[in-house]
Amino acid sequence: MIEFRLDRSSGLPPYLQLVTQVQEAIRMGWLRAGDRLPTVREVVTSATVNANTVAKAYRELALIGLVEARPGAGTFVCGSLGTADAATMARLRGRLVRWVEASRAAGLEDDDVRALLNSVLTGLDSSTGVA
Amino acid sequence: MIEFRLDRSSGLPPYLQLVTQVQEAIRMGWLRAGDRLPTVREVVTSATVNANTVAKAYRELALIGLVEARPGAGTFVCGSLGTADAATMARLRGRLVRWVEASRAAGLEDDDVRALLNSVLTGLDSSTGVA
Amino acid sequence: MIEFRLDRSSGLPPYLQLVTQVQEAIRMGWLRAGDRLPTVREVVTSATVNANTVAKAYRELALIGLVEARPGAGTFVCGSLGTADAATMARLRGRLVRWVEASRAAGLEDDDVRALLNSVLTGLDSSTGVA
Amino acid sequence: MIEFRLDRSSGLPPYLQLVTQVQEAIRMGWLRAGDRLPTVREVVTSATVNANTVAKAYRELALIGLVEARPGAGTFVCGSLGTADAATMARLRGRLVRWVEASRAAGLEDDDVRALLNSVLTGLDSSTGVA
DNA sequence: GTGGTCTAGACCACC
DNA sequence: GTGGTCTAGACCACT
Predict the structure, then answer these.
(1) What is the DSSP string of C4-56?
(2) Is the CB of A13 under 7 A from strand E?
(3) What is the Cα–Cα distance from C93 to C53, expressed in whole angstroms?
């Protein structure tokens, strides 16, 4: 069962954090079609957030088609966000874990690591500057 | 000179996106103490954003102490976000670039890549589930 | 400018009525890309509905991609629901108007007319019954 | 015997869909006074809906006076929703069928067709806009 | 002034 | 018990 963690200081709206975490869990294969999400009321108590906020997140996931709400029964995963096969994912994850360890050993904080990945993904290069 | 990019659909408030981008540029070494940020007016035209929004972002950066506004002259970087030395950074970046290439070759989207890094940074593992 | 009409006794949630009416207006060509929807607060006063309800409807339209919300500016149509060309639509509408007139002359109420269309669209036939 | 079809994504509460379908069947002449509705249990199995939901729909129909529950025997149609005589109805239906065929040939979807009828019934005209 | 989000609490529909 | 909607009112971000 997925467990939500809300970062109140991130600036990202709580309901979007919930949406993102479900998407990531599906991406990572932690949630699969048929799995049940925690009930709105469970999230309310575990994440100290308002029921409407959770409902909004679930509804948005339902609109995207990732999730299906069955009143009286719960909310169930019904879509997928395709990544690679399990073996490939494990290999990539292993390489990434080692790279993160090296980065941390070099003194990088998590935010530095994220910034670095961000710059690589957006094609920004240290030689050209930012443009 | 840093060039800002706003993602209207990210959910993150524009002014926070500006703040983040300056921080990342400093982290990456693209901006150093003494460098001038673009004027509010320049950002307004290049990023189609309201002047108040840019001013708010600069004010926030000044509060953190990363930036200093010199009336009449502009806004200048005056702090740093320590990472590693240039050589180490280049090496780490090189490894990361190759890893990203491998990930993309395996069919991963940018969001998949970010989710994967996120899960590694937060210590979440595919074997343990989400907790 | 579209004007909303809410039917409190229809059983359809008010926010869905708003969504539907915008969709229909776009379908009919009454609203086109670039047109502005009434502000949330305008709808609140004209349709005696809560601001959150209107916001929910607008947000749903934005998620579908039919509409774009520009904070501080308003909500604007940015998608289309393709029907036929204007001439064809006018011809079809003309035939339908005459058919409706004939139906009403025969004593049919609006609900009868809708039921008839419904049965034709769903392929139900008077000879086979309902199955 | 009427066969119910529930559209889970329509936003209309299931019990109201059942009510509407009985009304439409009566309007169309598929159900007449004395006809028996399927038992609650039959509907439950055929339409994958909860018994309470069916019971609620039947109760609603009884309140309107369209239906009568005879304990131990079943639920029977006992009212009518007057339309025209059979011959007129057949003629109108025939014209409508041809019109729908023309509309579909022109590329209209069912929702387009419904929107068009709606606009004609409510007296909205493409020339006057929406008011 | 614009839309967006969050909270609170109520009621409904469904299982 | 489940999710869904509506209301009310507050605060935020943006133009």
Answers:
(1) ----TTSSS-HHHHHHHHHHHHHHTTSS-TTPBPPPHHHHHHHHT--HHHHHH
(2) yes
(3) 32
Place of tokens 């954003």: B49
Flag if A81 and B118 touch (Cβ within 8 Å): no
Instruction: Say which residue the tokens 């890094």 belong to.
Output: B117
Q: Convert the pLDDT of each residue in B32-41 to its tens digit.
A: 999 999 999 9
User: What's the whole-model pTM score?
Assistant: 0.91
Q: Residue B29: name the closest of B87, B91, B86, B94 by CA.
A: B86
CA-based nearest residue to C120, from C106, C94, C101, C99: C99
For chain A, say whether C62 makes contact (Cβ under 8 Å): no
User: Which residues are CB-contacts of B98 (< 8 A; sequence separation ≥ 6)?
Assistant: none
The answer to whether residues A20 and A13 touch, using CB atoms and an 8 Å cutoff, is no
Q: What is the CATH number of domain D14-77?
A: 1.10.10.10
How many CB atoms are located within 10 Å of the residue C18 CB?
25
User: Which of D116, D122, D127 to mutate against chain C (most C CBs within 10 Å)?
Assistant: D116
Q: Tell me, in Å, how far CA of A42 is from C1' of F3?
A: 13
Cβ contact B92–A116 (<8 Å):
yes
- Cα separation, B103 vs A91, whole angstroms: 10
Amino acid at D27: R
Interval C65-115: pLDDT, tens? 999 999 999 999 999 997 888 899 999 999 999 999 999 999 999 999 999
Distance of B98 CA from E1 C1′ (whole Å): 50
- Partner-chain contact A100 B110, CB within 8 Å: no
Per DSSP, which regions of D45-88 are E strands? 67-70, 74-77
What token pair was written down for C9? 């006794």
Strand partners, B69: B75
